[in-house]
Design a protein that fits this description.
Chain A has 222 residues and is an all-alpha fold. Helix content of chain A is 77%, strand content 0%. Classes of the chains: A mainly alpha (222), B alpha/beta (245). At the A-B interface, helix 5 and helix 6 of A face helix 2, strand 6 and helix 3 of B. The structure holds adenosine-5'-triphosphate and magnesium ion.
């Protein structure tokens, strides 16, 4: 079936470290996206026309652009055009963060503007300060509204990291291809075993995350 | 009786249109003042001016000798002394009934959690909701939510309670259970300013009735005078709109 190639030498370990690369890129990007997304999303609720226009444009641009094009644009485009040399990993993190920030800011904006002004007033009328109101009343509600959707974004990001091999990063899928190439003669069936294993690895990472998001969604629905 | 609230020559404008026009109203300690008037006459705006949710153009609001709108001190410290219940309850959806009730006492008044819970349970018991202490707002009926909102406001021991059409969003069969709670509060001597469209309730609970029309106090008086012998044509017309003969 082709699974035996994975037992040869350090093949399985290489595959796992490839998975590690993919996870590292998505994790760093997710963290950056959360921080920048929260800031941008909060600014968007100020409803200043210029800010609204720029952020809408940014969001639409990122959504329309295929991630791969964005990846090429940042990695090859900027290095050539601007003469900046950056590693492929840095380029990937930038692209994924651009994408994640756009999506997160939209989630934050939606969650914030979904909380009616009178919820704030209800808290103020009990003598709570602005700070206490945010900490105990507003932010917990925002997190509940956002978390399931942001977790989905994380799984989407992990899956999309398979694209970064196009700019030369050796992540799990690329390692898989290398193993298949190297063993073309000795195990011609390697493709099935290797890709199946890659599939299972993605599944093992993403499945618990999506279960968590379903669980939270159920627990917090109101 | 001592005067607790004094609204002095209050004028409030939106876009240069006066929605409250030189309103004067005093409320004594233990008094229940009920405000009625046609939709859009400025009732909610008046309540919102009392705890400074609305800036005012002219005049002032004085609570127990201290000017609170325009407010020079800390707004949160003033609002702590004024309870407010809204038409749509505005409970915190992510907190249980008990957590809703103890949040402000614990965070604002720095009361120990155990003590706050004890007090909350006693209040819940009085409004017949001790069985719901661990429920979330979404698991309650409108009438139950509104009773929780009332006792949540009471937890802060406010000097005065403002109720803005607290039964307007309720199904008819739930109105009674909420108004009964308010009538009991009145019997206990709570100071309240109540805006309502429930005329029978108004008459039962009020020490003094106030009729606002077009941003001005048009008429005020004891419930009997107010309902039996309205002095102005406008009040007579307004009261007539509630009867079907
Ligand atoms: N934010 C606002 N901007 C402009 N006008 C406002 C605003 N809020 C209220 N108004 C106007 O002020 C007037 C008084 O409104 P208010 O809500 O106090 O009326 P109300 O007596 O409570 O009416 P209802 O019985 O329908 O609740 C209305 O004419 C309303 O249109
Ligand atoms: Mg109103």
């Amino acid at each position: 079936m082709g699974f035996e190639v994975l037992l040869k030498g350090s093949n399985m370990a290489r595959l796992l470290s490839g998975l590690g690369v993919a996870l590292k890129i998505s994790l760093i990007s997710v963290l950056i996206s959360i921080v920048l997304g929260v800031i941008l999303g909060s600014i968007m609720t100020l409803k200043k026309p210029v800010i609204t226009f720029i952020s809408k444009f940014y969001l639409e641009f990122i959504r329309i652009m295929p991630q791969m094009v964005l990846l090429f644009l940042v990695f090859f485009g900027t290095t050539k055009a601007l003469g900046i040399s950056m590693s492929a990993e840095t380029a990937s993190v930038i692209v994924f963060s651009l994408w994640g920030t756009a999506e997160m800011s939209d989630l934050v904006r939606g969650a914030l503007s979904g909380i009616p002004v009178i919820q704030y007033e209800s808290s103020y009328s009990l003598g709570m300060t602005v700070g206490q109101t945010y900490i105990h009343v507003i932010i917990p509600q925002i997190i509940r509204r956002m978390l399931p959707l942001s977790i989905n974004l994380v799984t989407r990001m992990i899956k999309t990291t398979s694209l970064v091999m196009m700019i030369g990063i050796v992540e799990v899928l690329k390692v898989g291809q290398q193993i298949i190439e190297a063993n073309r003669k000795s195990s011609p069936n390697a493709a099935f075993g290797v890709y199946a294993t890659v599939f299972i690895l993605y599944f093992l990472v993403c499945w618990p995350i999506s279960i968590l998001s379903k669980y939270l969604e159920k627990k917090w629905e109101s | 009786m001592d005067e607790i609230l004094n609204i002095n020559n209050l004028t409030k404008a939106y876009d240069d249109i006066n929605v409250l026009d030189h309103v004067n109203l005093t409320v004594k300690k233990g008094e229940v003042v009920v405000i009625v008037g046609p939709s859009g006459c400025g009732k909610s705006t008046l309540l919102r001016c009392i705890n400074s949710f609305e800036p005012i153009r002219e005049g002032k609001v004085i609570l127990d000798g201290e000017t609170i709108n325009p407010c020079k001190g800390k707004l949160n410290e003033v609002r702590e002394r004024i309870g407010m219940v809204f038409q749509n309850y505005e409970l915190f959806p992510h907190k249980t009934v008990l957590q809703n009730m103890i949040l402000a006492p614990v965070k604002v008044k720095k009361i120990k959690k155990k003590e706050a819970e004890k007090e909350a349970l006693a209040l819940l018991d009085r409004v017949g909701l001790s069985g719901k202490k661990n429920s979330y707002p979404r698991q309650l009926s409108g009438g139950q939510k509104q009773r929780v909102a009332i006792v949540r406001a009471l937890m802060m021991n406010p000097e005065i309670l403002l109720l803005d059409e607290i039964t307007a969003a309720l199904d008819p069969e739930m109105v009674r259970e909420v108004l009964d709670v308010v009538i009991n509060l009145a019997k206990e001597g709570r100071t309240m300013v109540i805006v309502t469209h429930e005329m029978a309730f108004a008459r039962a609970v009020a020490d003094r009735m106030v009729f606002i029309d077009g941003g001005r106090i048009v008429e005020e008086g004891t419930p009997d005078d107010f309902f039996e012998n309205p002095k102005t044509e406008r009040l007579r017309k307004f009261l007539d709109s509630f009867s079907y003969q």
